[in-house]
Every structure is written in C-alpha cells, then in structure tokens.
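Mods, move this if it's the wrong board.
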Amino acid sequence: MLHVVFFEPRIPGNTGNAIRLAAATGATLHLVEPLGFVMDEPRLKRAGLDYHDLAHVVVHADLDAAMAALPGRVFAFTTHTTTRFTDVAYQDGDALLFGPEPTGLPPEALAHPRVTEQLRIPMQPGRRSLNLTNAAATAVYEAWRQLGFPGGI
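Not the wrong board. Structure tokens:
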C-alpha cells in the first residue's frame, strides 16, 4: 500500500480530490495539521463526493506524528532538486510527501530525518508547479504502476 502525505493542506477542493485519488488507488491519505479548512467544509465534500467512505484518511497533529505512522520510505516532492520521481524504484509502504499550495514543503520538512530522498516532477522552464492533487496523482500512479497496480482492475 502506498501512502500520500499532504503537509498542512490549505485548499479543500484539492484535499477532496486527493480523497478520490486514495479511494481509486487504495493509497492511504495522511493530512498533517494545521489544515486550512474544516474536514466537513462543503467544498471538500463536493470534491470528495461519495468517495469519503471508500478512502482511508488519517489526520495527524504534526509532521513528526505523521512520519512516525509511516511504515516505509518517505519521498518529499519539491522543485528544488534534480532527481526525477521516475528515477525511483518504489516499494510497498512508500510514502509520497507534498507541501501546500502555493509554497510547497518548507525547509524543515524537506530536512526531516525520515525523508529518504527529494524528488521532482519535470516541467517546462519558468513554471512554478503543478496543482497539488495533479502532482500527487502523477506520482501515485507511477508508483502504483511500478508495483503492478495491486488491487486494481
């Protein structure tokens, strides 16, 4: 099972879409507080639709609590590295860590001792970043593909 970690997410629609992503792939979604919204916010529910009951979502009080709950390696996604996300051989239990829009992961999260490696998703020059959930979906599907799409049809 893969783990997706959103560090201090701020946009409810992105988190709702991540709930759908977790439901569709069997990944566990970890949300690190503080959240920029209340979990029952209408925009979150609208984006997550009926997937809320099909996804495993865990909320953690802080980054250390989230990291302690993760069983495997942790890959932090950032634009400040040269290693591509496709250069990794993913394993069951790996976690993919993403920062909030618009700032991305702060230096202390990138330097956390549980972070195995920092990865980037290639883009055209001069672009800041992908939408948070688009980036997570890109990475999750690559990792899930490498694992043989376990549980998928």
